Structure prediction request, 221 residues.
Amino acid sequence: MPESPLFTDIWQFFTATTEDYLNLGNWRFPIVALFWILIAASLVIAVQNLREDPAQRTPYTIGLAIVRVLIGCMWFQGMLWKLPLPASDGLHYWTEQETTRAAFDFHAAFMKDVVLPNLAWFGPFVFLAELTFATSMILGFAVRVVSVLAILFVLQLWLGIYRPGDPAEWPWSYMFLAMLMFVFALEGAGRCLGLDAWLRRHVEAVRQGKTLVGWLLRIAG
Prediction:
């Protein structure tokens, strides 16, 4: 029986044997270890929520949590080709694409005159942004505010490659991702088997929003 490409791809991603991982050399091992730690933590958090709160045991809650974690995995995978720092060849290529394909001339000029010459400085911020999106979605932490930031990030990409270019790049894929992040923000997806739900139950400052930190964590999730 032939192997399923889907399961082969998943196995390679989970074992750090995809091309993006292999390009990192020995650095792929701590990176994949981080991924496994995040997945393990998300499972622990989900189980605690299921044990402690009967309201979490619904198809809606479980389904939204699964989608949230999978999108977090997508962000993590997308983060890989931003390595090695400070600016990978892939990041350099797509930044160049935005200098000619942006929907607005001022956007293209900004990418060409400001971002591209200083990509060694911007590159780590792009990497950290996607790592933050991945961590937030997988753990279900501060999902509302991080989703809003992710929407702005994705819309920049959408507008940056708006004009026709690479036939393999479908601009609507960015719009679909932005809409999905909007749903996460609207629904507070971290409250579905995520750390946001756990904090609201166990940390009084978050539950009541009486302190500044508690209030910030409450509105963030």
